[in-house]
Amino acid sequence: MTDTTDTTSSPFRPAAPVRPARPTGPAAHAATTAVTASVTLVAGVVRWSGPPPDGYSAIFAPPWVAPVAAGLALLAVATARGHRAASRRRTAGLGGVAAVLLFWAAGGLALDAFRAFFAVTGIPAGDFSVVDVPGALVRSLAAVTAVVTTLSTWSVATAGAWPVRRRWPRVLGLAMCVPYPALKAYWWLGGTLGRPEPHTGGAPVMEVALFATAAALVLALTHRPVPGRVVRAALRAGGWVAASAGLTMGALMVFGTAAQLLGLDDGPVDLGAGAITVIVALTYGTWLVIGVALLVATLDARDAAPRPALRGAGTVAVP
Asked: Which parts pass through the membrane (predicted)?
């Protein structure tokens, strides 16, 4: 007797071939970190072994910072084995130190970009159109590696944890958006405390616009529920750019000044300039804090995004 049973809808029919899944989450971040850190390590060693930086880049992070930071990032990837708490703490610690040093190594990248703009466009700018190309390359690589190392470290540190809604990035970020434009406005209105002479600055329109944009970005990143996919992606991209700008400029001045005080480097400030030295340190310190607040807000917004694995999961609000 011939079996005419229709098996097209049978639950026991052979399954279609399944493509191997691509690495996601911590595995993908670790792989990306390994690649970018390796490139940064090689470029940093080459730069370190060459002539010392001069010109505008002489006050940036010492050449050894980038390769040392990249080496720590690779060590963090290598130690990310298993799910034990001790292993995760070790990886998070190494990755955190590497990320901090990488952001310092990337300090001055914004200035490189401005100089490159004038060099490429041909707009007359004198010495401001001269670019330290080898140094700018290392700083660019350090910035990229800093971002992916931060993502990798964050993924390890928060693996299996509930999404957390932190309030302090909003409060601290908004508060730190005030001092720099306020100082510029104070000087423009005739204030003399810490003001460099001769003072030729006009109305701080750009400064107010820049930090108002940063404040709006802080508010948008910390708003819940998170917006739609396209808006969310745009906000996170803006958060990474703004956080990187604040962290690199802030780290350049804060860590550079600390290294200068310890006699490790020439440093970015004139320690004999009086009150202006304190003003500069405090001002750029606010940039560093804004960068930290934007970084955490961006990472929190990423964690709060709807994902299939997290459907039905709540969030934990902390101060």
From this structure: 56-80, 92-117, 137-159, 171-189, 201-221, 233-255, 275-297
Contacts of 175-180 with C-beta under 8 Å, sequence gap 24+, read 176/286, 176/289, 176/290, 176/293, 177/211, 177/212, 177/214, 177/215, 177/218, 177/290, 178/211, 179/282, 179/283, 179/286, 180/207, 180/211, 180/283, 180/286, 180/287
E strand segments, the chain = 164-166, 316-318
pLDDT value for 196: 73
- Which tokens hold the place of 123? 């707009």
Which candidate, 2, 43, 207, 14, places its Cα nearest to that of 138? 43
Confidence (pLDDT) at 313: 44
Rounded to two decimals, the pTM is 0.81
Would you list the DSSP string of 36-99? HHHHHHHHHHHHHHSPPP-GGGGGSS-TTHHHHHHHHHHHHHHT--SS-HHHHHHHHHHHHHHH
User: Residue 177 contacts by C-beta under 8 Å, 6 or more apart in sequence?
Assistant: 211, 212, 214, 215, 218, 290
Structure tokens at 293: 């607040």
**CA separation (Å) from 231 to 226, 235, 238, 274?**
9, 6, 10, 46
- What is the torsional sign of CA 180, 258, 144, 139? positive
* Contact indicator for 153, 59 with CB cutoff of 8 Å: no
Give the rounded distance of the alpha carbon of 291 from its chain centre. Answer: 7
pLDDT by 10-residue block (mean), the chain, 319 residues: 47 43 64 95 96 87 95 92 74 94 94 92 87 95 97 84 82 94 90 77 90 96 84 92 93 81 69 68 86 95 68 46
Q: Maximum Cα–Cα distance for the chain, whole Å?
A: 105
- How many other CB atoms sit within 10 Å of the CB of residue 164? 15
Please give the pLDDT value at position 79: 86
Q: Which residue's structure tokens are 């997290």?
A: 310
